[in-house]
Amino acid sequence: MRTFVISDIHGCLEEFMDLLEIVSYMPNKDRLVLAGDYVDRGPKSREVVDRIMFLAKHEHVVVLRGNHDERFRTLIQDGNLDVYDLFLSYGGVETLASYGYDAKKESIKDIIPSMREKYADHVAFINETAYFYEDEHFIVVHAGLNPNSVDWKSQPLEDFLSIRELFVNDPTNVGKRVIFGHTMTTKIHGKANVWFSDDKIGIDGGCAMGNRLNCLEITTEGEMKEHFVPARKRK
């Protein structure tokens, strides 16, 4: 069984679908691990969530939660308006537009109940996503692991979603290589391609920022291959 790991799709539906085609993904034979951040920034957040919900019906698909997904869930499900400004600042305008709402003309207090009714399945789906995936060789998370946690599985949930420098710059000491997104690889080694270190592999190529969408393939023999599609030009 081949394993494909993709993170930080951020509404880039076409690139995501192109990437699955390039690697000849076979749902009934391959494992697909999606490492979070499906919404915000890109133009088709709703469509990306729809597609992932469809894919998740296959037994070998693992869907993890990212910080953007959690903020979206918190806003719509919990009605937490404290995150609204941050949501808008980091791609929420595009997300709402993909769901058919205009953040500049409509009140969020009207949008929330409407979305709860129309897209209850999306919110419920995000609620069911996991915080990590582990096999015999790798751990996959959205953001990373806190090196100060005695038991990484019991670390604060916020660390799974949002940790950056503390994880990237310090040894993990968990006995397995950690595959992660969240921190764009351009900020780690100045390039959008996959970043490999002894204990970590960063795969966020910054597609929604105009760079590329990466995919890490792990073969049945344990070999790793890097695949990508460049971000499409948008107005």
Task: Describe the fold and architecture.
There is one protein chain. The chain is an alpha/beta fold. 34% of the residues lie in helices and 17% in strands. The protein contains 9 helices and 10 strands. It has helices at residues 13-22, 45-55, 67-76, 84-98, 108-118, 120-127, 157-162, 165-169, 186-189, and strands at residues 3-6, 31-34, 61-63, 132-134, 138-141, 177-180, 195-196, 200-202, 212-218, 224-230. A hairpin with a 3-residue loop joins strand 4 and strand 5 (138-141). The relative contact order is 0.18.
* Cα gyration radius (Å): 17 Å
Number of strands: 10
Count of discrete alpha- or pi-helical segments spanning 4 or more residues: 9
Strand proportion: 15-25%
Mean pLDDT: 97
Unreliable stretches (pLDDT < 50, length at least 5) are: none
Distance between the termini: 39 Å
- The level of helicity is 25-40%
Report the major sheet.
5 strands, mixed
Quaternary organisation of the protein chains: single chain
Structural class: alpha/beta
What is the overall silhouette?
Answer: globular
Order of helices and strands: EHEHEHHHHEEHHEHEEEE
**Strand arrangement, largest sheet?**
3-2-1-9-10
